[in-house]
Structure formats: C-alpha cells, structure tokens
Amino acid sequence: MILLSSYERLIASRYLLPGKGERFIVLVAGFSLGAVMLGVAALVIVMSVMNGFRAELFDRIVGLNGHAVIQGYGGQPLNDWRQLLARAKATPGVTSAVPMIEQPLMMTNNGRAEAIILRGLTVPDIRGNSTIAGHVVAGDLNSVTAGSNRIAIGSRLAETLGVDVGSQVTIWNPAGQSTPFGTVPRMVSYTVGAIFEIGIYDYDKAYVVMPIEDAQTLLLFDPDTVGMIEINTRDADQVGPILAPLRASLGRTAAVSDWRQMNAEFFDALAIERVSMFVILCIIILVAAFNIASSLIMLVRAKTRDIAILRTMGAPRAAMLRIFITVGTTIGILGTIAGLILGFVLLYFRQPIVNLVQKLSGQNLWDPSIRLLTELPSKPNPVEIAMVVAITLLLTFLATLYPASRAASTDPVQVLRYE
User: Which of 34, 77, 271, 402 has the highest CB neighbour count under 10 A?
Assistant: First the structure.
C-alpha cells in the first residue's frame, strides 16, 4: 500500500471490511485468507519434515557407514588393506579412512535368536564415531576393548533379545571349522558392555559393534585381513569428484562405492516424494487464489456504484486497479503471515501432537519399524520457505488482476444513468 495515495489507502482499507449488507463478501474473503493460511502452513510443515527426514537419515546413515567404502570385488576380504588405506588417506579431500569388518551373523540369548550385522572397528574408531559414541543409552563404550569379549549393541536388538548391560549373548558364525561330519558353526559368547540408540530402527535392531581384532577371531580372518575401508571426505555431495583419482588408481584391485550408490534408490525416492508433495500442496494455494478472485469479483459488483462515483469525481482507472489489487494482495499477505506462524508453531510441537493423536486414537501412527526414525524430524529450509512465500504472493497477485481490471473498466455513465 506504499504506492497508493492517501484516498486510495482509505478506500482499500474500507473495502477490506465491507458493510453490514455485504457480510457474505467478508465471509468469502475470510475463507480465502484461511485457505492461504492452511496452504502455506501445510507447505512449510511438509517441506520441513521432508528435509528433516533427509537430513536425519543422511547424517545417521553416512555417520555410521561413511561417505564411501573400498571393498574387494565379489565381497572378498581385503588382504593388502594397509596399502589401500595409505592410498586413500593420501587422496586430496579425504578426511579419514579406517579399516572395518562388516558381516551378517546370528545372535542368541535364552532361546531367542535375531539376525545381526556385526561391525568390527579399531577401538579408537569405535570411541571416535560420534554416531555411536554420542548415542550410548546404557553401559560404557570404554569397556569395549580388544580381548575383553565385550560388545556394543543397538537398543532395539537389546529389547528383542531381552538383554541389558552385563548380559551374556552368543554370536553364531555359520562359516565355522570343517570336520569329517561337515562344517560346525562357530559360537562365541560375549558380554554386553554398552547399548546405543542411533535413532534409525533398522540399525538399532541389527547392529553389533566390537573391536576389529575380536571380529577377526570370530570370523576366522587372518590378522592382516579386513572386510573393507570406510572413507569420509570434506564434502559428501562432492564425494564422486573427490574419489575419482582413487578409483582410477585402484583399477581392478578393489571397488569404491559411495553413499549415493549404496543408498541411491532410497534418497531418489525421497526426492521424488518431496517434489510431488510440493506440487500437490501448491494446488491448495491455487484454490485459495481462486477464492480471492471470486471474493474480489463479488466486491466489485457490490461496489459498482461507488466505483462509478469515484470515477466521476476524477479517480483514474489506474487508481481503481491499484485499490483492488491492494485489497487482494493484502488478504494474501495476511494469510501468508498467519500460515508461517501456524506452520512454525505446529513444527515446534510436532512430536507432542503426534503423541497426543496416538494416545487419543489408540493407534501407533509413528511405528519406527516403518518410519525408520524414532521421532518425527524437522529442518526448515529458509530458501524453500522464501520460495513458498514468493509463490503464494505471486498467485495472489495474479488472482487480483481480473477483478481489478473489471473495476477499472467500469463505465460511470452506464452505471449512473438511471440513478
């Protein structure tokens, strides 16, 4: 309203709140404002939650698995891993490279059995991994040392097997020793030294961490053999270009797989869903824009006589255009502000709201085994929020053009002829 003259601002403010005989117009304008508010709030909430999903999953998946791994072809162990480790560390852009063993096995306790993913790391790497060390919920990770027969397991796995810190569990290695009667599985008992909860259900239900020396003994590996080398780079999004020289230098001796290749289907599906939700929710704002247009058309018809009088008093067509554009865009601006406030409030209280709905409905709406994460995440993106605001205001402005042009084209002679 800054570009309006004083009388144009006065008329626009009066038209925003029509008289007693025009309450229906106020009702329609109120619905328009509410539709804009709900559309903006829905977009802010959905896009923030989708960003939160990607950020949480990316941080925890990459935090546990690294940005890339060097593996032997066909899943074969790496026998010359020290040379590969030195080559990886010397690659520009690589911040860390650690040897690791990862193997699917079986764990039992008191007749209960669960499939696990055994991960063997050096003791400094176990304690330096923030994804594990920063999420210990019971026990002490410092007790997990080489030769101690102590391990760290995920919280969901502990619940399923009914174990706690200090409990004894047995890990089965089917590739045991060969005998005249066949292969005898290797069974080794361990003490639970720590329980961690990463926050990703599949990891908390399956992962078991132990020192790499103990993993080599369990799997009957040679002390100079590891399963893979985990690599972290300075920029996960540039992992391809950073590791290109390393891939070229390795040739056919080993394969390098980065996080995009290992989780490509998952993150691509998440990106497609995010774009689809954005387009679908934009339709809500488009409907709100049509509501604004219809309310302005009714306002123009109701104020036809007033418009004609203003025109005879010397008001130019451009003034009528500006007045009705201002009325429509003001509704859009107020709806956008209200939608942003509502969206951020609901995001702030998102988990209590989910818990309340679950309690009232008696349904588990946030099953971690389906949703992957234990809590509803959120990460508002200022660029996306600015885009939502810009799209809303643009659609609102476009919706005002036709009603405003109708008002500007009013012929005062035809309207006032029979007055």
Answer: 77
Given a contact cutoff of 8 angstroms between Cβ atoms, the answer to whether 406 and 293 are in contact is no
Which tens digit of pLDDT belongs to each residue from 6-32?
777 777 777 777 666 566 667 777 888
* Residue range 207-248, pLDDT digits in tens: 999 999 999 888 888 888 888 888 888 888 788 889 888 888
Cα-Cα-Cα-Cα dihedral sign, residues 370, 375, 380, 381: negative
3-state helix, strand, coil in the chain (%, to 5): 60, 20, 20
Tokens of 13: 């403010």
**Token pair recorded at residue 325:** 């554009």
Dihedral (C-alpha) 258, 261, 266, 267: value to the nearest 10 degrees? 60
Q: Tokens in use for 372?
A: 């992957």
Cα(244)–Cα(256) distance, integer angstroms: 9
Neighbour count for residue 407 (Cβ, 10 Å): 28
Of the candidates 150, 57, 70, 147, the residue with the CA atom closest to the CA atom of residue 102 = 70
CB atoms within 10 A of CB 247: 17
Paired tokens of 295: 């309310």
In the chain, where the domains are located:
6-58+266-416, 73-253
Query: Do 37 and 335 contact (CB within 8 A), yes or no?
Result: yes
Of all helices (H) and strands (E), which one includes residue 209?
Answer: strand 207-211
